[in-house]
Amino acid sequence: MPTGPRPLARAAALGRLLHPRSIAIIGASERAGSFGERTQRNLAGYAGRLHLVNSRYQRLGDQPCHAAIAALPEVPDLVVCAAPMEAVEGVVRDCVEAGVGAAILYAAGFAETGRPERVALQARIAAMAREGGVRLIGPNCIGMLDYASGATISFAAVPRPAAPPDRPAIGIVSQSGNLGFALAQGVERGVAIGRVLAFGNSADLDVADGVALLAEDPGCAAIACVFEGMAEPRRLVEAAEIAWAADKPLAVFKLATGEQGAAAALSHTGSLAGSDAAYRAAFERAGVVMVEQFDALLETAAFLAKAPPCRAPGVAVVSTSGGAAIMAADKAEAHGVTLPQPGEAAQAVLAARIPEFGSSRNPVDITAQVLNDPDSLRACAEALCADPAYGAVILPNGYAYEFATPRFALLGELAAAHGKAAAVVWLTEWLEGPGARAAEANPQVALFRSMDRCFAALAAWQARAERRATQGAAAPDPATRLAPPEAAARAAALLDAAGPTLTEREAKSVLAAYGVPVVEERLAADAEAAVAAAASLGYPVALKVESPDIPHKTEAGVIRLGLADAAAVRAAHAAVLANAARAAPGARINGVLVQPMVPQGIEIVVGARRDPLFGPMVVVGLGGILVELLRDSATALAPVGEAEARAMLRRLKGYRLLRGFRGLPPVDEAALAAIIRRVGELAADQRERIAEIDVNPLICAGSRILAVDGLIVRG
After folding, report:
1. Which residues pair with residue 223 across a beta bridge?
2. Which of 399, 583, 600, 623 could, after both became Cys, cross-link 605 (CB 3.0–4.6 A)?
């Protein structure tokens, strides 16, 4: 098997899989409920030529049945193997010999068993197919669905739409066939879905290929992807970049979000930058919309498929319920979506049509008086759609009844006329009540069954629009590097001369080579040298034991702060050395570091960690001793550009602290972003030498930003 990254499959080379003119079912059968019989039944609406293969039959119903692929009247574009596991290798061999374009392998019992001989069998089949030019889906897969052509290929019960999609629709990509088909059942309630690709064991084609294929499919308006993990996740990032270039929204829900490997990390950075953070960082750069819940995936993709380009950041809510309006305000605030007040023209309409016990403020409550004045909804909704402050209009629907159904078509009509996005939030527990299907099927209206998910999708839509406007998905330009040209060579020499874990002083020398501002310090061999150093630097000072064997000094009790005179320095010197001996008996002690106390400021951690799948990543968070408790952090692939570094800061829950807090001046965001970029450049340049970097804390006050501690772990 090849060991390097595999190139992505592209639609131009996979026409025989995606648009088969002929399909052969291997293992066709007359036995009701068999995989072959179910597949044939599911293909009843297929527009191409269908061939049946099973040596036990001459005919099945009114169709001829052939003994082997070689006996078919033509070479099929696509073979569906409904044969058992033991026969699959022979079927793939026959496909290669006949020149078949692609094959779908249902059978389980291969690499997913973990048995070495089955793993080897799957690898052998994949290699044979690859060398023979046959592309594979599976094994251990449920099939694939193409609603436009009727090529609904599966042994399972196939979800059926009322009619094939008449407009670009959602494409679904899933490792899990069950979850993929669970999403596909959205067609039963009116969701427009065009294709479903489920890859099972992914011996050949996988979810990355599926995303790339759908990105190039003109019948696909947005992609919904669900997956667990990949051996080569950068292929999925590359596929996401293809989708971004095609302006094809990609929504992803990732399973298996545990932080494997983080427990072994030596730094705070390592504890914050686990596997899920790596995927998120990679997807963020590629412009992927990540959803936090499986039940948000299809809703989000459907909204992104229907929504026009975002014209304005504001959202208007027009409700017939005061409670629903309040709920909308709460969720808008939670997701950072603005609800600006209507302009003068819209306000005049609202004031004239809404009773005094309603509210003409956004979120707008036109009250249940809409029953007596049905035209008031049209007037108010049209005024809001026409207001240039709004890019989207939301209509909560708290009660399902026939009288409300026309409202959804009205909302779609007005939104389309003004180029705005529109959504109905279905708050009633009558999930399929009157109007639900009409709202779902409306090409201009997205249906959400949760106010929270609605505003999460709106926030993602707005962020995607802002990113597209600033070309934000691109990696940083090497020409914008901040580190001096000699930094890489100088840092490499320092690292090569150091041990496995650099001391704080060594780590800060490496950071300083890249232009990271570090606190001044002196290394003192004994108590009197520490006193002399303190006098030279100026009181008050901090004292820290320097030892390559004590990376976490706070926990070991080998730091003393705010020492105001020589007596305090002598006492602290004795105390920290005693604590070092207790915390790490036999530890190598180089002396004590003496540093001037840095005045109060906001404490930030900036670090990096080399992820085994994605390479070096930069992490930013609220720092100090509470970093792991607060876990308020943002992660990005290294290196990062200026816009990306600033975006990381703004994603922090504690970002408002940087704007000025309790008398402290606002932190110079540009200067802090520059430090983040410098740490990223260090991590990227020294990816073969550095496993972890931890600059904690950076003490920030105005334009004064200093690293007062640092840790670098080689590896």
Report:
1. 171, 250
2. 623
